[in-house]
Amino acid sequence: MLILSFIVGAAIGSFLNVVIYRLPEEGQSIVFPGSHCPGCGKSIKWYDNIPIISFFLLRARCRYCKIKISWQYPMVELAMALFAAALFYRFSLSPSLFIYFVFVAALVVVIFIDFHHMIIPDVISLSGIALGFGLSFVNPLVTWQQSGLGILLGGGSLYLIAASYYLVTKREGMGGGDIKLLAMIGAFLGWQSLPFVVFSSSVLGAVAGFTIIICQRNKGNKAGKTAIPYGPFLSIGSIFYLFFQEKIHEFILWYFFPT
Q1: Confidence (pTM)
Q2: Which of 28, 223, 22, 240 is nearest to 117 (CA)?
Q3: Which end of the chain has the smaller Cβ count within 10 Å, N or C?
């Protein structure tokens, strides 16, 4: 079952690559036309579209026009394959397995789209808010009350942070997409996940920011105002919480209430 989960995850990852590539493009369908080379436009045969494997068999190039294929494709496929196996290992065959498979797949799409385009499509975040709350009625890990509070506190907390930053600096430091994304995260994971998700994503974002500044200085460039997408860090923090929430809660209790 773990092997089957891995294979299914890789196949879904192949589809997510299509979503990542086409969703930011206005008017593009994620279903039609079928998979094709972005360089020459030729349809990709099934044997050239086997997740992970075909990338290496083709030596990262299109069979026809020899344009280079991005490493993002096998990365997304392998990530979803590993996540699918990990989700099955954690939840077995239960409603939580399917609920959080959809959740993780959405976060993977958010990570790559926000990294490349600095946007989080509303079709993912707003649909995710509604879906997460609706599924909370059958989700054994999160009640509908926890999900509802997660939506309100998740979106509300980031909105207050963004509004406060704008009042102080007169600049926008956080997009509306991040606010809606945290509301979606609250819908799937409940309000109790939000402190860790916000804290861990802030730490990861700070590390990334300092790393960029150091790299710019080492290259002789002045460290300017470099925009860094926040969605990937929120997503990574959420995935980490999903798999390790018991340990996280144990650590918090140990740290603040040592006995």
Answers
A1: 0.89
A2: 22
A3: C
